[in-house]
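Researcher: We are triaging several targets before committing to wet-lab work. For this one, the compound of interest is 2-acetamido-2-deoxy-beta-D-glucopyranose. I'm pasting the protein sequence and the ligand SMILES. What I need is the predicted three-dimensional arrangement of the protein with the ligand bound, expressed as structure tokens, so it can go straight into our comparison scripts without reformatting.
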Amino acid sequence: MKLSTAIALSLISLFVPALAAPSPAFSGVPMHVSGPVVPGGPNVELDGTAEEIVAKLDKLHPGWQKEQTTTGKRSLETRYWRGTPKCERIGGNGALEHHIQSGINHLNNLGERQCGAPARDCSRVSCSHGSAIFLCSNRDHPISVPCNRIGGAAQRIKDDCTNRTFTFFGYYVDGQWENTDGYTVYIRDGVC
Ligand SMILES: *[C@@H]1O[C@H](CO)[C@@H](O)[C@H](O)[C@H]1NC(C)=O
């Protein structure tokens, strides 16, 4: 390689930006969830929001929630999260607190099942009445996270980032929190 070519190439690389962390589009891609329907059972792969996954599990095995060994909240290991949630509106209209709370409950009910997001992209892990929770992989590979950990992070974002000015529709919450493992949880508006 001629020296001038080498210099030209290294100059080009200076101007190629590092891959930016993705931020969630309004719709996102469906979440992929993997885990047994009941403890000890075979793994089942499902796609959809937490609300849709809960409905699918209800069909596959009515009463599955009573057979879970680990239900509800998981302690959020805050040392793996960067600082505190960043509260700002990403989308157009924002998410409403009461709909986000029901999404958090669904994510917590999914327990230790793995909720996934594709490489450098975002999945819509929960969506109800236009209020959504997204999980984005900031890495070049897909990620999966225990669903209730996303529920715990969303709870913290909700607690920190709810705007206490009452509106006709309720209280709005918008924010994001980045985990040091290369993913970010977002609360914003969504299509549903
Ligand atoms: C909270 O909501 C009110 C009413 O919509 C708005 O005027 C205000 O700017 C918001 N505050 C923040 C910090 O976003």
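Researcher: Any quick observations?
Model: The chain has a mean pLDDT of 87.
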